[in-house]
Each structure stands twice: as structure tokens, then as C-alpha cells.
């Protein structure tokens, strides 16, 4: 599904990622942890094609991201990837149904699945509400529904529970895991939380030497 080959990225003379090589298995939920500044969010941005490596290759389903034009890379992100952010990025002037339907609209698909996804995340019947009527946990549920509505092959989540209290975070992560597994998607979640990482199939720690597998003793099965 996803391969990183000799990936290097430098900012302001400081090497953030150095010849990083790793292959992610299909249909797997992976948590990435590591110290602040080690390059976790940078790695997600590179995988998404939102930033370019200084050297090395990123392959999604065998397609080399660097070989794509801007339009082709945008199309791949729009159709094959879903994104969940710590800050939600739910658009305040759109209803919940309209927010969730955005990926379908951009892909020229029918928008009926938006209501089904809202129901799947426990917000059925609230499609006409606006984000201002929601709690933080409910907004993150909308973000999860939006990330999965177009059935992406790869979901990228950057600190998706950083703004949530522990109880809400547990609920949101359990929902995210269940929806990813139900859709057969692969997922990579950057997190500083061991409780969040426990929801993943495996945990990798990003260090200067690469991505290292660590025992996930509290893994949810």
C-alpha cells in the first residue's frame, strides 16, 4: 500500500528525516510516536504530497508520488486518501451533512452516503445542524465521517484527539478504529498519547535512526 524509500527532508539546515525506509502493510492501523520535533507531522505531510522530500521516494499503491503532476497528485489525494486533523477543520458555514459530503462533491460522486456516515458516527438525524451546535468530540466525529465517506484506501490522522478530554478521546478513537476496519482502509496516526496508540494494530516510534516497532502491550483487539 505505502512504501517509503530513503526519504530525507531538511529544514533550515537541520535534517528532520534521514534516509527513512519503511513499508506499511495494507489494511493496517499504525500509530507513530516520537519526541517533539522528530518529524512526525512532516512525515504525514510528505506521504500526503503536501510537501516534497529532498530525496527519496514515496510510493502509494506502487505509484511514485514525485512522478505525478500537481493535478495528478491532487486527484490521488482526493480519491485515495482521507485526512483527520487535531483542529478538526470542520467548515463552520456548512451543515454537518455538507461538511461530510465535501469529498463526494469534489470527486463528482453522489452525496447520499454522507447521511449514512453521520449515522455511523452517532450523529444520525443531525445533518442539518451546524458545527457551532457541536461539542469537540462531536466535531471530531464529523471529521472522521468526512475522512471516510469516499472510501479512501489510506487515512492519515495527525493528533486526532489532542483537543479532547480522555473519555471523549477514547470514544472517538474506538469509533475511528471500527470505521477503518469496516471499510478495509489502511491508516497512519501520529500521536503523543500511549492510550491513543493502544487502539492501533502496531506502534512505531520515529527516531533519528528510523521507524522502530515497539511492543503494543495494551493493543485493542
Q: Could you outline the blueprint of secondary structure elements for this entry?
A:
Elements: E1 2-11, E2 14-24, E3 29-33, H1 40-48, E4 55-60, E5 63-64, H2 70-80, E6 81-85, H3 96-106, H4 113-120, H5 136-148, E7 154-158, H6 166-183, E8 186-190, H7 194-197, E9 202-207, E10 210-214
Parallel strand pairs: 3-8, 3-9, 6-7, 7-8
Antiparallel strand pairs: 1-2, 1-4, 4-5, 9-10
Helix pairs in contact: 3-4, 3-5, 4-5, 5-6
Count every helix, treating DSSP H or I runs of 4 or more residues as helices: 7
CATH class categorisation: Alpha Beta
Rg value? 17 Å
Proportion of strand residues: 25-35%
Question: What's the β-strand tally?
Answer: 10
Q: Give, in order, the helices and strands.
A: EEEHEEHEHHHEHEHEE
Low-confidence stretches: none
CATH fold annotation: Rossmann fold
Largest sheet: 6 strands, mixed
Which class of secondary structure composition applies to the elements?
alpha/beta
End-to-end C-alpha gap = 22 Å
Tally of separate domains = 1
Describe this structure in words.
With about 220 residues, the chain is of the alpha/beta class. It has one domain (about 1-215): Rossmann fold, CATH 3.40.50. About 35% of the residues lie in helices and about 25% in strands. It is built from seven helices and ten strands. It has helices spanning about 40-50, 70-80, 95-105, 115-120, 135-150, 165-185, 195; strands at about 1-10, 15-25, 30-35, 55-60, 65, 80-85, 155-160, 185-190, 200-205, 210-215. The strands form two sheets. It has a six-stranded mixed beta sheet with strand order 6-7-8-3-9-10. A four-stranded antiparallel beta sheet has the order 2-1-4-5, covered by helices on one side. Helix 6 (about 165-185) links the parallel strand 7 and strand 8 (about 185-190). Helix 3 (about 95-105) crosses helix 4, helix 3 (about 95-105) runs parallel beside helix 5 (about 135-150) and helix 4 (about 115-120) packs across helix 5 (about 135-150). The longest helix has 18 residues, at about 165-185. It is globular and about 50 Å long. The two termini are about 20 Å apart. The mean pLDDT is about 90.
Amino acid at each position: 500500500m505505502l512504501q517509503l524509500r530513503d526519504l530525507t527532508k531538511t529544514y533550515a539546515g537541520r535534517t528532520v528525516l534521514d534516509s527513512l525506509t519503511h513499508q506499511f502493510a495494507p489494511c493496517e492501523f499504525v500509530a507513530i510516536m516520537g519526541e517533539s520535533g522528530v518529524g512526525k507531522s512532516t512525515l504525514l505531510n510528505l506521504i500526503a504530497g503536501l510537501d516534497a522530500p529532498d530525496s527519496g521516494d514515496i510510493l502509494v499503491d506502487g505509484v511514485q508520488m514525485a512522478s505525478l503532476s500537481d493535478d495528478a497528485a491532487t486527484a490521488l489525494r482526493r480519491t485515495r486518501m482521507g485526512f483527520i486533523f487535531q483542529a478538526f477543520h470542520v467548515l463552520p458555514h456548512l451543515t454537518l451533512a455538507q461538511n461530510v459530503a465535501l469529498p463526494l462533491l469534489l470527486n463528482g460522486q453522489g452525496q447520499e452516503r454522507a447521511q449514512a456516515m453521520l449515522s455511523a458516527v452517532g450523529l444520525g438525524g443531525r445533518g442539518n445542524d451546524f458545527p457551532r451546535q457541536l461539542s469537540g468530540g462531536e466535531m471530531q466525529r464529523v471529521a472522521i465521517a468526512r475522512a471516510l465517506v469516499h472510501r479512501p484506501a489510506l487515512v492519515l490522522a495527525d493528533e486526532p484527539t489532542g483537543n479532547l478530554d480522555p473519555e471523549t478521546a477514547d470514544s472517538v478513537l474506538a469509533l475511528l478504529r471500527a470505521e477503518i476496519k469496516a471499510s478495509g482502509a489502511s491508516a497512519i496516526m501520529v500521536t503523543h498519547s500511549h492510550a491513543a496508540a493502544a487502539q492501533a494494530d502496531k506502534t512505531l516510534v520515529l527516531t533519528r535512526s528510523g521507524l522502530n516497532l515497539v511492543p503494543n502491550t495494551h493493543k485493542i483487539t
